């Protein structure tokens, strides 16, 4: 058993899959310049790792280590993407109408969030509806701020694919270039 070869196979596939996961996330978020550059490194590493395993199929442990590198690479790639928190989220917070006196929209705006306020009708009466745009890196602090002000808030979030107009447009364009 060649430990050095097994370690090399693991590291090569781990690196490939980590880059693959990050490249996929960059592609989905619209980073049109960096995603192809990452893919160049990714495919080079992939060919190297695959050839190492295919040239040594006589040892099944090589394939097992290759698969282990794949699994660990996905996990680490996801953690890196979570850390980078690329992109934006759109949060809808639906609040009881009694929340109006809290002035939550202004509190959120003072913290730098883009907020659009409207009103709707729910099962138990009128509701204040807040549409909030935020960088993903601020997601958890946004939820915390909303819940501190109104623990009864119903919160839904999603990632917008396209953003145009409003005071955030210039910030978004600068970050995507």
Automatic annotation (TrEMBL):
Q: Where in the cell is it found?
A: Cell membrane
Q: Which GO terms describe its cellular component?
A: plasma membrane
- Note the InterPro entries from the entry: DUF2179, DUF5698, UPF0316
Query: Boundaries of each DUF2179 domain copy?
Result: 113-165
Short name of any one Pfam family annotated for the protein: DUF2179
Q: Which UniProt keywords apply?
A: Cell membrane, Membrane, Transmembrane, Transmembrane helix
Q: Where does the chain cross the membrane?
A: 6-26, 33-54, 60-80
All copies of the DUF5698 domain together span: 21-78
In the bilayer, the protein is annotated as: Multi-pass membrane protein
Query: Which NCBIfam families does this entry report, sorted A to Z?
Result: PRK04164.1-5
- Which protein family is it in? Belongs to the UPF0316 family.
Q: What is this protein called?
A: UPF0316 protein ATZ33_04485
């Amino acid at each position: 058993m060649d430990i050095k070869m097994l370690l090399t196979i693991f590291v090569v596939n781990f690196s490939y899959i980590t880059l693959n996961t990050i490249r996929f996330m960059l592609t989905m978020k619209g980073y049109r310049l960096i995603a192809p550059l990452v893919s160049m490194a990714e495919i080079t590493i992939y060919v190297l790792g695959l050839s190492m395993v295919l040239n040594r199929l006589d040892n099944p442990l090589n394939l097992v280590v290759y698969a282990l590198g794949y699994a660990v690479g996905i996990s680490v790639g996801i953690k890196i993407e979570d850390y980078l928190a690329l992109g934006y989220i759109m949060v809808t917070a639906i609040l009881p109408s009694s929340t109006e006196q809290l002035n939550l929209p202004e509190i959120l705006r003072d913290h730098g969030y883009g907020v659009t306020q409207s009103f709707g009708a729910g099962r138990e009466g009128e509701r204040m509806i807040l549409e909030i745009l935020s960088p993903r890196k601020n997601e958890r602090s946004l939820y915390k701020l909303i819940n501190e002000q109104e623990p009864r808030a119903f919160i839904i979030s999603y990632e917008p694919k396209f953003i145009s107009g409003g005071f955030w447009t210039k910030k978004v364009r600068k970050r995507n270039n």
